[in-house]
Fold this sequence. Notes:
This protein has helices at residues 2-31, 38-56, 59-67, 69-73, 80-95, 100-123, 126-144, 154-161, 167-188, 203-217, 254-270, 287-301, 305-318, 320-323, 328-335, 349-368, 376-388, 414-433, 437-442, 447-456, 466-474, 481-494, and strands spanning 224-228, 234-238, 241-246.
Amino acid sequence: MDAAYADLKERLGEIHDLQKTRALLAWDQQVLMPPGGSGVRAEQIATLDRIAHTTFSSDEIGRLLDRLESFEADRPYDSDEASLVRVTRLDWEKARRVPAELRAEMSRASSLALPVWAAARQTSNFALFLPLLRENLELRRRYIDCFDTYDEPYDVLLDDYERGTTTAEVRAVFERLKVDQVPLVAGATREGERPGRDRPFPLEAQRQFELQVLERFGFERASWRLDPTVHPFASSLGTDDIRLTTRYHEQNLDGLFASMHECGHGLYEHGVSRSLERTPLARGTSLGLHESQSRLWENLVGRSLSFWRFFFPRLRDTFPEALGDVELEDWYASVNWVQPSPIRVEADEATYNLHVILRFELEQELLAGSVEPAELSEIWNARMLDYLGIEPANDRLGVLQDMHWAGGHIGYFSTYALGNVISAQIWERIASELPDLDAQFEQGEFGELRDWLTERLYRHGRKFTPKEMLERIVGGPIDPDPYLRYLGTKLATLT
Length: 495
């Protein structure tokens, strides 16, 4: 049996290498590749996906898993060995249902759609992207047709990002958030000039200041990168090869919060136990847990008063012309300013979830055919007006702002709001065990927080399902109450 396990690990390591090579090509496509390379790059990515999928879903992998049933049963549930066999079996059973050519076609279509989306976004031309959106939707319908055990079709896509979570469960959480957050936004919305906003912030100085912040969080120059791109994202090519991307704005510091957000993703991937490297366990449990970390480091840390007590004097020294007349209290109010805006990644904490809920609802309607893709821009704008009281000035600020549908990531959006909810649940547990965090933040110290998260969450990689992982950390299932308490308390101090 030990020989079978060694054989399985070797095969999985080779598949992992293919997947990470594919991830490198995708990172390069969005960061460095000249636009003319998109056609060939789409074929390269499709080839790697087809080979990886065919190899992983093979009968040989299935036979090894069958031979390892008693091997798994003889070991503790939370051991690396039992977890690898258990999680691989679940992945294999799902992969077996999807033809390799469909997997390659999905990858090819997504790769071809991304540069078209970027061009459409730049020119605010939704019609340019519309045929690619239609193709990605049809491919996802074909993918759903590969499965026959689900309550709602959207469950199949959601399971790719949040294993074991149903659309009905997410809908219940979101309905609770909508009930509380729509009036909360109305009561907390600020008017007037936002302190320190819309002033010149030289880009290179922004980059250097961001690196100071990220290095305090755990960014290591020997193992990490930070690069500009159209839409910020994080990519892990290995536990010691973490690629962060961000975007900068000459008139504000929104890019700083995007960078802190992506750093949260990077810390999770960097914190995975090295014993899991080159296996299917060597990444985060789910995107909901992943987003809990990006939102935790961006918001619960990066928008806290104790964080800015340390960093604001340094920020003002970096940008004396822009911030010389701004005091700490004004800056704290500014970075927590509640004011509905069209862009999700730059939204304040109070309005952010409403951006996500809008996308969650539209994705289901698009898949069901109750919303036609050609109508999407108009319906998007109407929902924005209904939920947030604003209407995007153009499609670049509206339906074209996110890269996810171009990349084929339909089913992904809900994990952002789930991450908000989970981040507050985890934060309540952290605060009970590390009561002096504010004092540490005021000294620019974040290591104890990072170590706590590494021990409780990061090191486990994908050994547990999202529900199991949350149970281990907070002792219960997903619950929006801690998030609503956190948000209500914070906003009460600011209004």
